[in-house]
Amino acid sequence: MRRFLASFGVFALAFVAPAEAQAPPGRASSVEAGVYIEFGPSFLDYQNIESAERCRDLCLQDQRCRIWRYVGGKAPAEYGRARRVCVLGDRPQQSRTTPGSWVTSGQVR
Which domains does the chain have, with CATH numbers? Predict the structure, then answer.
């Protein structure tokens, strides 16, 4: 039984590690809760992302990414299927609004 648990523990660590990958050295991002940053066309959209922090990490891991936005699961109905979506951009900020707690944005510094 002890051997089984040890094997399971190694598997669990290997399985969890990719989701908690660290940002490359020298890259950091702001995290602005409640702020919707518009930046024009995205270069990559991720569906079913669990958190704004995970979205930020995906941006920091991609060298092209300069700006990101996460639309959470409690977005208003007019956002339709665009919920739990992480949007990555490589363009400068175009506009900024503060619609509510369902969105978080950030910029790489």
Answer: 2-107 (3.50.4.10)
